[in-house]
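Supplementary material to the annual report.
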Amino acid sequence: MNDELPGDHPELTSGIRQVLYTQEQIRGRVAELGQAISRDYAGRNPLMIGVLKGVVFFMADLLRELTIPAEVDFIAVSSYSREAREHGMVRLMKDLDTPINDRHILFIEDVIDTGLTLNYLLQNLRARRPASLEVCVLFDKSSSRLLSIPIKYKGFDLPPYFVVGYGLDFREKYRNLPFVGLLSPDVFQNTKKANQG
Amino acid sequence: MKPTNQPHFVHPIEGEFAKILDFYNIRWVYEPRTFALEWDEHGNVTLAFTPDFYLPDQDLYIELTTLRPSLATQKNYKQRRMAELYPDVNLILLKRKDLRNLMLKFGLDQQAQQIIGTAAQKGSQNER
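Predicted assembly:
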């Protein structure tokens, strides 16, 4: 853990109380994951699928670490918002552009916590009969897990706190931080006050 | 599976949790089983535990608690007894902080605040 916050962009880092994983640490681990995937999927032309939006940072960096041909596609699902709840159930907001039957699929996630969304998506993808389906996640918050999800490739463990950066957001903010940090409780408090106002 | 008739939830947070499970198409059953934990010399059950939810597809029991850690001693004891007596039963205890983070994650700020509210801090008669 690195306690020092980068001081160059205070507007961007406001609300972050501690750096958990630095840009360099993330870069190094993503490179290791890329090497492992390149080794395991050589000659299989994997299709890398990510769920929008948080995964785009990890996906872009991971793809550039691969030394084998690979394809990429994205999927999007409704989040548990008031509007989505009125529709009753989670649903696909954007489907894949690529058929996946008989393809080797590597599902890429920025973070897994409860496993609820990922469980839904894996069920959906399995029904399309891919040749194989594995999961690669950069950040694993296993302390929040409700559903057991087999993970083939994992980057880092996360503590049971609210963390942001490198794709992880709080109310759509902080995604573009190059590092991952702990969110200050003040941010929660301010959000509560704003919502009450 | 969304039950045709919603059960009467003892605590409002259980209803919110059930809605989340429904949203993600997770089958659940409310309080389907009671586990005996202690008996008297006549074999009568003196302590039992009824987890709030059972997820049949995951073979998983989930217990929710909004009690402050200092007031959750009995529940922690029951969880330990469960592990001793029923080691093959998968049980997750979602504690107050876990539930608050879960509610915040799903944008349920009001529910998150209720968990930290006075009633939850002092313990509720609804807590089992």
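The beta strands of chain A are 16-21, 47-51, 71-77, 92-94, 104-112, 132-140, 153-157, 163-164, 180-183.
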